[in-house]
Amino acid sequence: MPITTKLTPMRTEVLFINPGNHNKTYQNLSKEYSAIDTPVWTSLLAHFTRNKGYTTSIYDVNVDGWDDDTAKRILRDFNPDLIVLMVYGHQPSASTQTMPAAGAIAKSIKGCNKDIPVAMGGTHPSSLPERTLRENAIDFVIQGEGVYTIEGLIRYIKGKGVIKDIKGLWYKDRDGVALTAPSSVVKNLEEELEGYAWDLLPDISNYRAHNWHCFQDFGKSTREDFSDIRSPYASIYTSLGCPYSCHFCCINALYEKPGIKYWSLKKVVSWIDSLVNTYKVKNIRFADELFISSSKRVEMFCDLLIERNYNLNIWVYGRVGTINDSLLKKLKKAGINWICLGIESANEKVRNGVNKKIKADIKDLIRRIQSNDINVMGNYMFGLPEDNLTTMRETLQLAIDLNCEFVNFYTVMAYPGSKLYEWAYMKENYLPKSWDGFSQHSYETRPLPTNYLSANEVLKFRDDAFMRYFTNQGYLTHVRKKFGDKVERHIEKMLQIKLKRKLLEN
Length: 506
Fold this sequence. Notes:
Elements: E1 14-18, H1 22-26, H2 40-51, E2 56-60, H3 61-64, H4 70-78, E3 82-87, H5 92-96, H6 99-112, E4 118-122, H7 123-127, H8 129-135, E5 140-142, H9 147-157, E6 169-173, E7 176-179, H10 189-192, H11 215-220, E8 233-236, E9 239-242, E10 259-262, H12 265-277, E11 283-286, H13 295-308, E12 313-318, H14 325-333, E13 336-344, H15 348-352, H16 362-371, E14 375-382, H17 389-402, E15 406-411, H18 419-425, H19 455-471, H20 473-483, H21 485-494
Parallel strand pairs: 1-2, 1-3, 3-4, 4-5, 8-11, 11-12, 12-13, 13-14, 14-15
Antiparallel strand pairs: 5-6, 6-7, 9-10
Helix pairs in contact: 13-14, 20-21
């Protein structure tokens, strides 16, 4: 694959690499159906580093590719003082499942030049820093958000600092592995993480939204293909962190404790102004773990977008119990066409077992969202510790009854950094043998067994449930009425792609 990144004509002091392997992660779904997301954390950190006066570049493997000659080529073209591999996922699973690609890239770089300093940061490395350092051809692990750690590391490499003074750093020394003091968390997002380095990314038209994100626009178009409709596309944060502590989630591995911190609405809207006016972006994902947490703040934000009348197509995460009717009306006017809800399980005992408490009427909420012409992406999980075949059937039936415009059916993975990982680590044969096994759509996937079911049984139920949901006539009729015949045909085409599963021997 040819390099499309704009190469820096001068020596690059910090080269950020966004690793990935879409074909391995999503199998044949990667060709047409999965999103290609802008690397949000990488872009934030690159902008911060550049603002500190260091020449900075980004190489995005998900767009520019990686082959046997890439390491030699980027070392020649960028000539970096420091390489930072950011293993951040756009969902918790995407961090761990990216580790094989990140490790292979690091090994390839070291094979070309063993003296080039290579650091690795992100959710997975922050969760298992010592193991990450020992298992990979890297010199450093950046634990936590990484903002000040990267700044200290480049100063040290340039001979302007002492390594032990860099907070949040794991490194190799003569005695094995050493670590410094805990990392410092960014307190003032507005001043320190004040923008994105979109100009350092490959052409933003190379990024594309999820297929379902653009169903409403595809249905109105005159074309049978909607690849152009899905691009350009970008993800941004309006906040960092999550105040909740669901046992299956690893997001808080990056932060001191559960909590949430915000950028100002003025700052966020300025980013959207730039995306629209400079990069011609219409499709946007707010990657916040919980965008709809403060109704008052979100309403004020919607007012600012409504004033601009940009005709955006946005999707956001919400939490059941935090969405009211007055907010829904403004969300739609602001261009928010999809809300992603973590419904997880139909069974209260199963949800409570992982600290996922839902007190609101889920069916009533979804009907209210849909009545405001906003689509719902429902997230469901099969294989929570208290799940059995009966409770999983309840969850599938709930999904069919709710009839969301699209769904994600996940198996439960004990991701490093989560409470479930701590629990599963103490069990025999509960965890995948490799990081590839944490990928939901990969051939190697291996979900967590429950107290009553094997990993094989959970995975088979999930794959069968996926087919049952997307082939049931109630869903297809709903999609056809809402989006048109083309979207129904698109879904039928998607179902022709069968995921191969090593665990199920297919």
